Amino acid sequence: MRKVWVIAVREYLAAVRTKAFIISLLLMPVLMGGSIVMQIIFKKIEDRGERHFAVIDRTSGEELYAALTKAAEKRNQYEIFDPETNRQVKPAFKIERIEPSAPDPEALQQQRFELSQQVQAGKYFGFLEIGADVYRVNETSRPVDDRDESRLLMEAIYGDDHHSDPERVRYQSKMPQDSSFSLWAERVINEAVQEKRWAEARQPRQKVMAILRPVPLAAKGLSRRDPETGRIIDAATESQIVRFLAPMALIIVMFMMIMVGATPLLGSVLEEKMGRIAEVMLGSVRPFQLMMGKLAGMTGTSLTVSALYLGGLYYLANRYGLTDFFSFGILAWFLVYLVLAMIFYGSIFAAVGSACTTSAEAQSFVTPVILIAVIPMMVLVHVIQQPNDAFSTTISFFPPSTPMMMIARLAVPPGLPWWEPVLGALLLLATTAAIVYAGGRIFRVGLLMQGQGAKLKEMARWVFQG
Amino acid sequence: MSAVEIREVTKTFGAFTAVDNLSLEVPQGTVYGFIGPNGSGKTTTLRMIMRILHPDRGIIQVLGNDSHNAANDRVGYLPEERGLYKQMKVRDVLRFYAELKGCRDSKSSIATWLERMELTAWANKKVQALSKGMAQKVQFIATVVARPELVLLDEPFSGLDPVNTEVFREAVLGLKRDGATVIFSTHDMAVAEKMCDFIFMIYKGRKVLDGTLESIQETYGSDTLRVRMEGNGFSWQGMQGVAKVTDFGRWQEVRLERGTDSQSVLSALMNRGSVRHFELSRPSLHDIFVRIAGPEAEENHHA
């Protein structure tokens, strides 16, 4: 046992001193801290100065241009400052009128091109075009009884050509994905357009809006009883994102641990074999001790990294008040399954490393193993949405996917009956024992084999005949 | 008690018999040389003594133990194919191997050996910074750092320059002085002749020689002439009673046929030219090796 420990310590120290390990350790806090810092920096950069926008209003009277100018003035006066610090936090919008071109397509294209050039040159941030028929109301032409009520309602509000004619108002800029102006302009224009439509229809806008106000639906978890006070606690409002967050985060961490931990193990076995270190080691330890030592060292490395990652996640969860989703029960199960997963995949990788002679050869052997490890990632969304249907239950008892799938199902409220994770762990333990046995036998023979790498058939023979 | 006792051991790999019904006893405190051509079973035998391979038949006792691993911590092993963790520092590597042998207090032993091998200045350097000769020294220290009672060295002298060969030879003899038993395999017959108390030769998995150098030479008798003639281009063609001539250029080593009188050969030589050196001796280990495993023996074997 002491020899296993000596090897494990060496493996651990060798792993944690590599650059890759330090990078992966730093990456997490850097990503976490970095995203916050970047947000602050971008805010600072973005929020300075004015943005000029060209507006072509093709409606008669150009009332929408007037509405935009007025709204922009109001916005620049009140809405771009932080109410507490009184500092400017958003850019000011300056609206500039452009004489509409002739309505024929050629002139239209010409004007758009000229304005594009001006945007390119930096004169404008972007330009907005308002079509002449923006006030037109599309009456539905098909018979009423053909559609359902809600669709009818949507069409009454938006018109049934809402998607087919998106360019009655169009906005062009170098950065179409930056929606700060387009969303604002859309809102201002729509308010003005609707106002005019109501007026023409002789209906007060407020009244119609009140009629059309949607009824919200609250999605909640289950009500439960507080075991101490005996009072019934109402379920907290759950957003779908939060529901996904915990299982996603846990599974991604576990998947990373398997990849980050087991892949170097493959390399280190290969190094020992091809660097002729293996036989020196076998002068002092049995092959099985060597393999177990390496597995223990690797598991230690992974536990170190995951402690940091989970700590980070827990910190974030705590900060956003989501600690309910990272209970200690789940974390404990996570550790149990992580250790089993590391040994399970680690023994496969160690066996492969010992049977191969080049890393390219080893890669071709582990690719199917990695594909199996990826399965849980692919079915993750389904399992989180339907944690207890036949598919999710079955796949969580398939040993290679058990660690990730069982954790995913545990992390979705209200969790699982106690026997499911226990049974899953026992099944995985039995499979892991078999894999370690087979891996150990391949390791023993493969390690001293030089020259050509082994075929799958040979490896099978080593397992069953020794 | 014997340090190693091998009784009727056979080891096969598939259809190939690597070691065939081998028996051998290595007395404690001796230096035992294993010789034999490549692929004749030396490394397999050493690996079986180390319990890295297990015999199909027969018993191997190491330091009085015949169970697996029981004596391993008291045995040091330097395999023919050897490497070190390149990223580790010299001192750490040595401490690691000492700990693997269960030796927790290796500090003084490491210091002594680094000193003896003139590597003290390199103790805190990474292994990858060492030259090949230095790395070989570190590997040797790793083998003996836990003060083993039995040391197995597979081709310890291969690839060494003459200076390092001297250092290694001195180190091996030092181990013997300290009471350890040393078994090493080698292709260098001169080294085996000079250093080994006993020589064991294995050929095609079978033991063909075993004993002291003298006792081995005894069985072949004094049938070898070492001759040096004046001038070049001397021909042995048609000389009576000569079985084989090995020409080293300036010297010739001549094996006489059984029953040939060496004096008659000398007079024949004197008739042909000027004799500068004429010596009747026992065959060298090199010659014995070639007689057993050379192409000539191959032909007899097939005939």
Search tags:
heterodimer; A: 466 residues; alpha/beta; D-Maltodextrin-Binding Protein, domain 2; 2 domains; two-stranded antiparallel ribbon; 6 strands; 64% helix; elongated; B: 303 residues; Rossmann fold; Alpha-Beta Plaits; 28% strand
Main beta sheet of chain A: 4 strands, mixed
Distance from first to last alpha carbon of chain A: 23 Å
| Topology order of chain A in helix (H) and strand (E) letters | HHEHEHEHEHHEEHHHHHHHHH
Biggest contact: A-B, 20 and 29 residues
The separation of the N and C termini of chain B measures 42 Å
CATH class of the largest domain in chain B: Alpha Beta
Share of residues in strands of chain A: 5-15%
Description:
Chain A is α/β, with parallel strands linked by helices. Chain A has two domains: 46-212, 3-Layer(aba) Sandwich (D-Maltodextrin-Binding Protein, domain 2), CATH 3.40.190.10; 239-465, no CATH class. Chain A contains 16 helices and six strands. Chain A has helices at residues 2-16, 19-46, 63-79, 105-121, 149-158, 180-201, 205-212, 240-274, 278-282, 287-319, 328-355, 359-385, 390-396, 402-411, 419-446, 456-465, and strands spanning 50-57, 92-97, 126-130, 169-173, 224-225, 232-233. A four-stranded mixed β-sheet of chain A has the order 2-1-3-4, sandwiched between helices. In chain A, strands 5-6 form a two-stranded antiparallel ribbon. In chain A, strand 1 (50-57), helix 3 (63-79) and strand 2 (92-97) form a beta-alpha-beta unit. In chain A, helix 8 (240-274) packs antiparallel against helix 14 and helix 10 packs antiparallel against helix 11. The longest helix of chain A has 35 residues, at 240-274. The model of chain A has no long low-confidence stretch (mean pLDDT 80). Chain B has helices at 42-49, 90-100, 107-116, 132-144, 162-177, 189-195, 213-220, 262-272, 285-293, 295-302; strands spanning 2-13, 16-27, 31-35, 57-62, 75-78, 150-154, 181-185, 198-203, 206-211, 224-229, 242-247, 252-256, 275-281. In chain B, the strands form three sheets. A six-stranded mixed β-sheet of chain B has the order 5-6-7-3-8-9, with helices on both faces. In chain B, strands 11-12-10-13 form a four-stranded antiparallel β-sheet, with helices on one face. Helix content of chain B is 33%, strand content 28%. Chain B is built from ten helices and 13 strands. Chain B has two domains: 2-217, P-loop containing nucleotide triphosphate hydrolases (Rossmann fold, 3-Layer(aba) Sandwich); 222-281, Alpha-Beta Plaits. With 303 residues, chain B is α/β, with parallel strands linked by helices. Chain A binds chain B through residues 2-3, 6-7, 10, 14, 17, 275-277, 279-286, 448, 450, and chain B through 50, 52, 68-69, 72-73, 75-79, 81-88, 96-97, 99-102, 139, 142-143, 152.
